[in-house]
Amino acid sequence: MQHAKDDYAKGSWLTYRPEIKVLDCTVRDGGLINEHMFEDGFVKAVYDALVAAGVDYMELGYKASKRIYSRDQYGDWKYCDEDAIRRVLGDDTERPIKLCVMADADRTDYHDDILPCEQSVLDVIRVATYIHQIPTAVDMIRDAHEKGYETTCNLMAVSVVPERELDEALGVLAQTPVDTIYLVDSFGALYSEQVRDLILTYLKAVEGTGKQVGMHAHNNQMLAYANTLEAIIMGSNRLDATVNGMGRGAGNCPLELLLGFLKNPKFHVRPVLDCIQNSLLPLLDKMEWGFRIPYMLTGQLNQHPRAAIEMRNGDHPDDYLAFYDELTEEE
Amino acid sequence: MQHAKDDYAKGSWLTYRPEIKVLDCTVRDGGLINEHMFEDGFVKAVYDALVAAGVDYMELGYKASKRIYSRDQYGDWKYCDEDAIRRVLGDDTERPIKLCVMADADRTDYHDDILPCEQSVLDVIRVATYIHQIPTAVDMIRDAHEKGYETTCNLMAVSVVPERELDEALGVLAQTPVDTIYLVDSFGALYSEQVRDLILTYLKAVEGTGKQVGMHAHNNQMLAYANTLEAIIMGSNRLDATVNGMGRGAGNCPLELLLGFLKNPKFHVRPVLDCIQNSLLPLLDKMEWGFRIPYMLTGQLNQHPRAAIEMRNGDHPDDYLAFYDELTEEE
Questions:
Q1: Which residues pair with B241 in a beta bridge?
Q2: Taking Cα atoms as reference points, which of A277, A301, A201, A100 lies closest to residue B311?
Q3: ipTM exceeding the 0.90 mark
Q4: Cβ-Cβ contacts under 8 Å for A97 (sequence gap 6 or more)
Q5: Rounded Cα distance, A289 and A37, in Å
Q6: Which positions ≥6 away from A174 have C-beta within 8 Å?
Q7: Which of A71, A50, A67, A59 is closest to A31 using CA atoms?
Q8: What is the DSSP string of A68-116?
Q9: Where in chain A is the domain with CATH 3.20.20.70?
Q10: Which CATH class name applies to A21-285?
């Protein structure tokens, strides 16, 4: 098997890198659209599809603090309590897919709410952090690691982080026991050349540590899949995607595109098509996800998609001109 | 102004290449969805938007043979007769935007239907050809050139052309008076690395001739914009796009994304948003364009989207599974 084509390409067209693992965050990122109020049957259908598709990891939702997020405003997948997961996915601790949750820095009672790994069906804790929360994130990583979990750190909104701060943050994270550090394009603002530079920066920061670098893209500029491919080319081995690109706002890298590209025969696109057709399309009359002009505009301006999401949920979801004028006047 | 960032990048983030020109093919490629039956007001609205946006070229449709394509089955923009263009866009021969038509090899009565340039409001003849039609295309290029037109050659379906044949074709075209040779990803099948290699191949073929290399992408794999960016990075200076990505099947590189990326201050995205909001969205209840799963599947298989278009127009447009099984059984 050939693992290097030329100086920058890490694979070739007819071989594959067995190190590449795919993480599906449909239920977690999609849950941001509907306050995590998915029905059990939907979560089970996605799970079954991912297992059949050969996907390596499934992210279910958040470990949100019940002090901060009132239980009556959100569905089960905001908290991912052990009993909710076991109710839907059973009690097995040996599964063909690893189960993950995201824990937001400063919004998770991680000491209490994250059980020791051997008491949980969960396998991976993904610590999401903004740059200023890194000290908290480091403590969360250590806590989860000591409890026996595989861990990732998802450093968000990196398109607005100055290089020097990024280098410092990566230096700190490289000294933690975290298994994977993710490049997270929260605003869907990165272009391919930036993805290349950033993945190289991340890879350099973890060199010699055995840690992996992951890619989590958003589709605001219709580049989520393309940027994920660039990350693969540069050497990223942990790839986030969602079924049909479902996710807040413009959504994520579509899993069906990614699996269609990856050559590892363990991956299968057919179960994902089944899931889209039978479980996701029926949701489209109450939930919206995917590329839209307002997300393009916030992406081009390297802004959080907050304003675009509000606009799409408001009374004039197609008044692109008014939204453009509002955004550019604020500049 | 800086024109080279490093070995492969031809621009930088804060400067721009004034050589880059944008060609809008909304009315031509979009016309493939509705047999070119656009109302005059729509064509004029697109024209006005493109002029205001600073776009360099507007493609109106085809110069189709009336012997082959019956006049009662198609709208005016299948033929682009001089009187139709003048009726909608006026008689000016000096315009802020160049008007183009596409002429398909073997489907155009070019000797008769293409007037001498000084008698026409048209500026550019774009010769579309499959690899086996190159001798005809060369004759069409010479004919249009002698009549005074700027010319392009759009060599279609290049993702299924063997390298040796492509090299021969480019060698032949380089000796014609054609002004621009386009890399055309008819099946939306190319990945960024292939775009890079192909643009370099095209650039090498025209080296020293003063000819330009263009990019015409399709969105079957959601890579039309990303691949157009790759073409820019590699040195392509002629970029095709369409308003809202309107075009047959999965459509094209969205103009609003491209203009949002290009830094030349002559380009403006606001008129394009206006056009989408007021002229394109109202068409969505009778026309469909843009990324859909069936186009992804034909793109991944490097096939013409014909079967996917039929499937979307049929009785089961969302039966992805049946379509997938049909496609993969044919393999």
A1: B24
A2: A277
A3: yes
A4: A47, A50, A51, A55, A56, A57, A58
A5: 16
A6: A181, A205, A206, A209, A211
A7: A59
A8: TS-TTTS-GGGT--HHHHHHHH-S-SS-SSEEEEEEETTS--HHHHS--
A9: 21-285
A10: alpha beta
- H or E segment and range at residue B21: strand B21-24
Collect all residues with Cβ–Cβ distance below 8 Å to A80 and sequence separation of at least 6: A60, A61, A62, A63, A101, A122
Q: What is the pLDDT of residues B180-203, one digit of tens each?
A: 999 999 999 999 999 999 999 999
* pLDDT tens digits along B129-141: 999 999 999 999 9
Name the residue among A226, A256, A324 with its Cβ closest to that of B223: A226
**B116-121, long-range: CB < 8 A, 24+ apart:** B116/B147, B116/B148, B117/B147, B117/B148, B117/B149, B118/B148, B119/B82, B120/B82, B121/B82, B121/B85, B121/B86, B121/B89, B121/B91, B121/B92, B121/B93, B121/B95
Cβ(A213)–Cβ(A196) below 8 Å: no
The whole-angstrom separation of Cα A90 and Cα A20 is: 27
Whether the pLDDT of residue B36 is over 60: the answer is yes
Q: How far apart are CA A259 and CA B11, in angstroms?
A: 32
Name the phi and psi angles at B30, rounded to 5.
-60, -35
CB-CB contact of A279 with A42 (8 Å) = yes
Q: Which of A244, A320, A325 is nearest to A282 (CA)?
A: A244
Token couple for B74: 């198609």
Q: What does residue B51 show for φ and ψ, rounded to 5 degrees? A: -60, -45
Is the Cβ pair B276, A222 closer than 8 Å?
Answer: no
Q: Which of B76, B93, B184, B99 is nearest to B137 (CA)?
A: B184
Instruction: Kindly report, residue by residue over A31-63, the tens digit of the pLDDT.
Output: 999 999 999 999 999 999 999 999 999 999 999
Amino acid at the residue B122: L
pLDDT band at B12 (very low <50, low <70, confident <90, very high): low
- Read off the DSSP letter of residue A218: B
CB contact under 8 A, B221 and A223: no
Distance CA A85, CA B120 (A): 70
Among chain B residues, CA nearest to A11: B193
Question: Is residue B149 within 8 Å of residue B117, measured between CB atoms?
Answer: yes
Residues of A in contact with B257 (CB under 8 A): 221-222, 296
Joined tokens for residue B95: 């315009």
Residues of chain B with Cβ-Cβ distance to A273 below 8 Å are 293, 320-321, 324
Per-residue b or e along B211-236, where b marks 16 or more CB atoms closer than 10 Å to that residue's CB: bbbbbbbbbbbbbbbbbbbbbbbbbb
Chain B closest-CA separation from residue A211 CA (Å): 27
Q: Does A257 contact B222 at a Cβ distance shorter than 8 Å?
A: yes
Dihedral angle over CA of B102, B107, B112, B113, nearest 10: -40
Largest distance between two CA atoms of chain A: 55
* Range B82-99 burial, b when 16+ CB lie within 10 A, else e: eebbeebbeeeeeeebbb
- The residue among B86, B67, B64 whose CA lies nearest residue B75 is B64
pTM: 0.95
A142: left (phi over 0), alpha (psi -120 to 50) or beta: alpha
